[in-house]
């Protein structure tokens, strides 16, 4: 089940609708998010940073499980966090602070694994590459930086290098408002939008500017088409512009070079965009609290969701786990136990006493257990300990699995034996019958 | 023939089998004397073309009538003069027939290349000129690699020729080739360096002929400058129209072959150093440093400089340390740096001083590069530091104009080392160097390239790129200078004015970077905030009531945009700067694009918390109330005037500001702030457009029922009647769109507050009483001032009100007020005392005109009834105004309203009216 999630800067909770049917689902309560502050962590739960009044010294990040409207876990990082992002498996959360620092937490333990000074001013957006190895951050100072996580966690290389980032793109003159990334890992393109009325297309492999598109208004949100033919840019003048990535556009059109058209319906500024690849839908959130679902081909509005009075500033399209969407209470209960009992709140500071412990990541091959496959060795040690004590749920589960396997094997054995027996019987019967027949013929 | 011979032989053998034939050997019978020679001999008959008669039509010929083929043949003639003439002929031909060269270029090259090692000097020179002026420019776009490879072997051949002149000429040729096809150096680098080395070793010649040495050395400098270096300026090529996901062909990187030449290059450097050393005694013996020897020495030093840079920063496998081994470094430090500084033995001319200065600068640059590898001893180092300090201060150079020019040209060579020196030196030297640098920065001409070089160094020192770390102890020293630099920037902007936009752009870029960076450094943060005061002059200044626009207004658009972006990064935008920016906004010469950009950026800054809400709102209000609309009067808003008028801009400004204001926060709070501001401004009687814009903003923020306070309703009720009447007065009746634009906000207000409508109607009624009309001092209206136009306006206003369905519904509950207005109109008509006959007639005819014209089309409209009713009502009022009983009229009116009478009724009243007028 694909659901649309939306949050607003004014407390209206997180709205949740079924994209297919349009039915409203559970509304998650008390959430006032900054732009790019809402993230679904590996489709297992929702995390959202919270807007706080400027005087507040610490940030505020909330977790919701899919099944409960109340926030389940509250954490208070050391400074206000604006953008949040999780890697695709949901094992790490990254947050951008208002001082320009980036925080890197492990979800399973809540430990702050790394924190580094990334920008001169507040971080405004964070994006993971689809292979999770690169992190791209945009900031209020107009800078877009590309970080390699290998570099971030490599202390030796870090000291040798003059800078941490892979690339630093400084061509934007004002705040970066949104970043999207194309496909192709390290060879992908990224598109960044800024308040200087431009969107810029960068190459990750060559580390340079490929294209500069100037729009008639400030662009606050962008979404990229999965074929990378065009990207959509939502402007403050209420239009969603379509800018070409592939074709050479004719310079004599209404909007400017590379802009090939627009989707319009509203006069209110567009604040966020999301693309649902499944049915080629574009979702736009606007200042008036509405979420519009556009059919990209026909440029018509298919559906509208009303979120709240205030501006919508985050939209996510999430594929809910199958188990959850079936809504069987029993299964939910067990999955919730899996999800939530495991996740402690995010830590405020990097624990110095942990420094001596090895926090290298261990990469396991993906297996059947629905645990993330990137785990720090400490976490794995914990699991081992639990297994040894035979007390944990995971251990019990594994025991069950082992027993099941045993049972299966026994069944196989039984089948085999049965087959042998059948064969034997048939043979005997044949023998007997044959013998009788011979005797009979003899007797005749 | 052969066959017959064979057969005859056979026959012979058959017949005479064993017969011995005696033959005499060695002797032959002489041919008989009378025998005829039957042999036929032929010879090729060469008929040289008869020059007069040959048909050369259609062929390209030179002035002397020779074709290219002939000319090429002549180039190998044994007579030098003919060869030269042939070359001249080719040149001539190619100039007149460029296509000829394009078609036969390989043939031409193959023939001409033989002449590179020609014995005759004149021929070589002619060949050089031919190549330089025609052949290379003509073949520029072709497959040059092949083209060049045809030539190169001959050039190398000539380079090893015994005659020194030919060798030198070969270098000249090679120099030409490199100019047109730079990659050829990388292809033949090793061989070329070897040749240079060989020729420079022959030290006897250069002392004789410095002119030739100079050309050779300048060629060497050109070649060496093609060596790849690690510090390339980031190429800013935004190729906009390419396809993003396109395949890109791999261009062969030119620097692949350079790792192998390091050894050769090292030898060359040693030779150059020796060469330099040979020159030194010569200098001392000479009375003065002449131009040629100066150029030679300079080229040598430059070559060494480039080579050293390649060793240290170049892209190659070997480490710099392994290259600069004992032999090289000792040679460099003893023979080159040991003689530093060079100074004239005899002070003869100012020019000479400058020449020595240039040489010293280059040596200092070499030294500073070398410092990366070899740590110099302290006293040598200090010698150089002293030189740098003096050089920066300009004390070494002569003070004449040419001296100043040389100084400006050559000082940038030393500047790149300043940041590194400043970060590494101990406090004493650090402050001396920084001081002299700051002096250079301040003193140099704002439009010079030196200023730009200084600016880029300042950027490097202000905004660290990771590798720069000022030590803690020296922080205060550096901070002092940083303060000076930062404060200098806005002044520099004012100095530059609009004379050199490119320099202004560099300064603005630096300011922007500074703003972006300032967030993380508390010191810079404070300094950047302080810039605001001086920066405001860049936009505009207000002195003694006069407004002076700064350079901002005259700069090109991209500079303007950059400077606007700088505003965003002030964490607390002060009122002075905001004011001066506002003045710029209000200037009618500002482009609309920049105008909207300013508003956009300032709103973004507000959102980021950089502008206080009170300042921000008052900025908006100032724009609304003081924006000057051209042309001043609203009437002629026609398509033809679009060019001069900025109505469109102002309209979009209004919508923009109202949407921004509604985004600011909770609308009721914002409304209360804005309400107060707008009412204060509106009572000052602004021009109609501005008043309309303010009303529009107000209704966007308002809701139904209204949030307006009691006082403001009263204030508005005093303002609106005048406004409405002015609008009606000024806008022609048929311009429906325009009057809707101006009146609609009022209708919205009436819709939201019926109390306001009542008050407004009361005021309109009171306008029309005798006492008010006679008062000329009443200033509530700007245009409709005399009584006649006021009555006209009132009537058309009422008509407009009746046309609008929504307002008409509301107004139906204010019959008494309407009645009293009508009564006053009626009584006004009856009071004949004050009007002359003519006036009265004019008035009546205008009333008629006004009432009829909308009625006629009103009958056809779907909602004709309402306008009908309204008109009939008024016509009736007028018709009976001759002192009839008013209440009866009103009753009739109401009756008409309710019963909805048809056209007959209308016609009836018209006749009634007509009757009365008569």
From TrEMBL, chain A:
Placement of WD repeats on the sequence:
116-149, 169-212, 263-304
Pfam families listed in its UniProt record: WD40
Q: List the InterPro entries hit by this protein, alphabetically.
A: Quinoprotein_ADH-like_sf, WD40/YVTN_repeat-like_dom_sf, WD40_PAC1, WD40_repeat_CS, WD40_rpt, WDR18/Ipi3/RID3
Q: Which UniProt keywords apply?
A: Repeat, WD repeat
Q: Which PROSITE patterns match?
A: WD_REPEATS_1 (PS00678), WD_REPEATS_2 (PS50082), WD_REPEATS_REGION (PS50294)
- Superkingdom field: Eukaryota
Query: What is the recorded name of this protein?
Result: Protein ROOT INITIATION DEFECTIVE 3
What is the scientific name of the source organism?
A: Hibiscus sabdariffa
From TrEMBL, chain B:
Q: Where is the composition biased (Basic residues)?
A: 1-13
Compartment(s) where it occurs, according to its Swiss-Prot or TrEMBL record: Nucleus, Nucleolus; Nucleus, Nucleoplasm
Q: Which residues form the TEX10-like TPR repeats domain?
A: 483-833
Checking SUPFAM superfamilies in the record gives: ARM repeat (SSF48371)
Q: Where is this region: Disordered?
A: 1-37
Matching entries from InterPro entries are given as:
ARM-like, ARM-type_fold, Ipi1_N, TPR_TEX10
Report if keyword Transferase is assigned. no
Family membership, please give it.
Belongs to the IPI1/TEX10 family.
| Stated name of the protein | Pre-rRNA-processing protein Ipi1 N-terminal domain-containing protein
Give the originating organism.
Hibiscus sabdariffa
């Amino acid at each position: 089940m694909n659901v649309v999630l939306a949050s607003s800067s004014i407390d209206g909770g997180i709205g949740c609708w079924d994209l297919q049917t349009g039915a409203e689902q559970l509304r998650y309560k008390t959430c006032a998010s900054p732009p790019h502050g809402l993230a679904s962590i590996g489709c297992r739960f929702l995390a959202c940073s919270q807007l706080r009044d400027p005087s507040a010294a610490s940030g505020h990040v909330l977790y919701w499980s899919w099944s409960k409207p109340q926030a389940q876990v509250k954490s208070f990082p050391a400074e206000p966090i604006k953008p949040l992002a999780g890697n695709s498996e949901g094992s790490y959360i990254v947050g951008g602070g208002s001082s320009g620092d980036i925080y890197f937490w492990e979800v399973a333990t809540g430990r702050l694994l790394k924190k580094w000074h990334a920008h001169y001013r507040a971080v405004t957006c964070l994006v993971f590459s689809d292979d999770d190895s690169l992190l791209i951050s945009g900031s209020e100072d107009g800078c877009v930086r590309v970080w390699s996580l290998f570099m971030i966690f490599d202390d030796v290389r870090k000291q040798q290098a003059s800078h941490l980032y892979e690339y630093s793109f400084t061509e934007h003159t004002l705040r970066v408002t949104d970043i999207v990334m194309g496909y192709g890992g390290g060879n992908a393109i990224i598109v960044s939008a800024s308040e200087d009325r431009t969107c810029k297309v960068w190459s990750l492999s060559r580390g340079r500017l490929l294209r500069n598109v100037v729009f008639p208004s400030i662009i606050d949100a962008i979404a990229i088409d999965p074929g990378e033919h065009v990207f959509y840019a939502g402007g403050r003048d209420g239009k969603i512009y379509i800018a070409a990535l592939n074709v050479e556009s004719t310079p004599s059109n209404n909007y400017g070079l590379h802009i090939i058209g627009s989707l319009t319906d509203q006069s209110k500024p567009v604040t966020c965009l999301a693309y649902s690849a499944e049915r080629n839908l574009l979702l736009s959130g606007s200042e008036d609290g509405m979420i519009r679902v556009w059919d990209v081909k026909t440029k018509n509005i298919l559906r509208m969701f009303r979120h709240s009075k205030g501006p919508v500033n985050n939209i996510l399209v999430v594929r809910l786990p199958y188990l959850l969407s079936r809504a069987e209470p029993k299964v939910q209960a067990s999955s919730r136990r899996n999800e939530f009992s495991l996740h402690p709140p995010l830590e405020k500071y990097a624990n110095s006493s942990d420094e001596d412990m090895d926090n290298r990541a261990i990469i396991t091959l993906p297996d059947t257990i629905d645990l993330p496959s990137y785990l720090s060795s400490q976490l794995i040690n914990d699991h081992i300990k639990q297994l040894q004590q035979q007390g944990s749920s995971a251990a019990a589960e594994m025991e069950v699995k082992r027993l099941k396997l045993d049972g299966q094997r026994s069944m196989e054995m039984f089948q085999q034996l049965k087959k042998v027996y059948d064969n034997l019987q048939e043979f005997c019967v044949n023998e007997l019958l044959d013998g009788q027949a011979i005797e009979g013929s003899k007797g005749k | 023939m052969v066959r017959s011979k064979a057969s005859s032989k056979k026959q012979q053998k058959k017949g005479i089998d064993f017969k011995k034939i005696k033959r005499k050997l060695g002797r032959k019978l002489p041919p008989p004397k009378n025998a005829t020679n039957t042999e036929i001999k032929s010879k090729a008959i060469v008929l040289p073309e008869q020059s007069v008669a040959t048909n050369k039509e259609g062929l390209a010929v030179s002035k002397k009538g020779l074709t290219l083929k002939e000319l090429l043949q002549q180039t190998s003639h044994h007579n030098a003069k003919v060869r030269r003439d042939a070359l001249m002929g080719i040149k001539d031909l190619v100039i007149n027939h460029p296509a000829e060269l394009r078609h036969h270029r390989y043939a031409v090259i193959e023939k001409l290349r033989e002449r590179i090692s020609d014995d005759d000097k004149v021929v070589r020179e002619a060949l050089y000129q031919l190549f330089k002026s025609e052949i290379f420019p003509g073949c520029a776009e072709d497959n040059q690699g092949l083209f060049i490879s045809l030539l190169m072997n001959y050039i190398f051949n000539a380079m090893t020729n015994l005659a020194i002149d030919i060798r030198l000429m070969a270098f000249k040729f090679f120099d030409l080739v490199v100019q047109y096809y730079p990659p050829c150096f990388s292809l033949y680098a090793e061989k070329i360096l070897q040749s240079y080395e060989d020729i420079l070793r022959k030290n006897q010649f250069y002392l004789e002929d410095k002119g030739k040495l100079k050309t050779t050395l300048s060629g060497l400098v050109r070649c060496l400058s093609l060596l790849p270096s690690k510090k390339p300026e980031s190429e800013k090529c935004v190729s906009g129209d390419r396809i993003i996901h396109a395949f890109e062909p791999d261009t062969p990187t030119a620097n692949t072959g350079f790792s192998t030449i390091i050894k050769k290059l090292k030898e060359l450097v040693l030779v150059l150093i020796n060469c330099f050393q040979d020159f030194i005694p010569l200098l001392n013996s000479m009375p003065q440093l002449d131009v040629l020897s100066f150029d030679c020495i300079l080229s040598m030093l430059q070559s060494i400089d480039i080579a050293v840079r390649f060793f240290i920063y170049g892209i190659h496998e070997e480490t710099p340390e392994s290259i600069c081994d004992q032999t090289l470094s000792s040679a460099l430090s003893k023979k080159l740096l040991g003689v530093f500084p060079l100074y004239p033995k005899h002070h003869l001319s100012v020019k000479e001083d400058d020449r020595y200065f240039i040489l010293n600068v280059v040596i200092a640059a070499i030294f500073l590069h070398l410092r990366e590898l070899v740590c110099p001893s302290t006293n040598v180092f200090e010698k150089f530091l002293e030189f740098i300090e003096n050089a920066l201060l300009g004390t070494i150079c002569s003070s004449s104009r040419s001296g100043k020019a040389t100084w400006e040209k050559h000082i940038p060579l030393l500047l790149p080392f300043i940041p590194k020196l400043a970060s590494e030196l101990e406090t004493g030297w650090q402050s001396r160097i920084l001081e002299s640098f700051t002096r250079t920065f301040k003193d140099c001409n704002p439009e010079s390239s030196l200023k730009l070089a200084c600016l880029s160094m300042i950027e490097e020192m202000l905004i660290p790129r990771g590798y720069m770390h000022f030590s803690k102890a020296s922080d205060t020293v550096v901070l002092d200078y940083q303060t000076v630099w930062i404060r200098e920037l806005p002044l520099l902007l004012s100095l530059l004015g609009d004379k050199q936009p490119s320099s202004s752009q560099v300064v603005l870029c630096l300011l922007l970077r500074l703003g972006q960076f300032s967030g993380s450094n508390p010191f810079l943060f404070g300094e950047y905030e302080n810039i605001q005061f001086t920066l405001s002059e860049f936009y505009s200044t207000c002195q003694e009531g006069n407004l002076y626009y700064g350079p901002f207004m005259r700069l090109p658009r991209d500079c303007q945009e950059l400077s606007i972006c700088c505003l965003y990064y002030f964490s607390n935008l002060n009122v002075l700067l905001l004011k001066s920016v506002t003045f710029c906004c209000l200037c009618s010469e500002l482009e609309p694009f920049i105008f909207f950009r300013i508003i956009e950026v300032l709103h973004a800054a507000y959102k980021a918390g950089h502008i206080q809400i009170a300042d921000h709102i008052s900025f908006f209000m100032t724009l609304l109330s003081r924006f000057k609309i051209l042309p001043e009067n609203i009437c002629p808003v026609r398509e033809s005037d679009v060019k001069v008028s900025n109505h469109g801009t102002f309209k979009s400004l209004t919508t923009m500001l109202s949407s921004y204001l509604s985004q600011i926060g909770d609308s009721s709070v914002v409304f209360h702030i804005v309400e107060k501001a707008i009412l204060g401004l509106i009572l000052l009687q602004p021009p109609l457009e501005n008043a309309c814009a303010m009303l529009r903003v107000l209704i966007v923020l308002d809701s139904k029922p209204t949030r307006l306070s009691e006082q403001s309703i009263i204030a508005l009720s005093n303002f609106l009647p005048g406004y409405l009447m002015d609008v009606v007065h000024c806008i022609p009746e048929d311009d429906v769109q325009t009057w809707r634009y101006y009146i609609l906000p009022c209708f919205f207000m009436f819709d939201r507050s019926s109390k306001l409508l009542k008050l407004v109607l009361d005021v309109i009624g009171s306008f029309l009483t005798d006492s008010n009309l006679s008062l000329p001092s009443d200033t509530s209206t700007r245009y409709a001032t005399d009584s006649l136009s006021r009555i006209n306006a009132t009537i058309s206003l009422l008509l407009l009100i009746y046309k609008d369905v929504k307002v008409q519904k509301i107004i139906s509950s204010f019959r008494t007020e309407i009645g009293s207005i009508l009564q006053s109109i009626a009584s006004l008509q009856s009071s004949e005392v004050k009007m002359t006959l003519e006036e009265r007639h004019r008035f009546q005819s205008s009333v008629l005109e006004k009432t009829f014209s909308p009625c006629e089309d009103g009958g056809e409209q779907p909602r004709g009834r309402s306008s009908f009713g309204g008109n009939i009502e008024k016509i009736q009022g007028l018709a009976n105004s001759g002192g009839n009983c008013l209440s009866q009229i009103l009753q009739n009116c109401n009756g008409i309203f309710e019963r909805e009478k048809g056209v007959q009724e209308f016609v009836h009243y018209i006749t009634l009216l007509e009757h009365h007028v008569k």
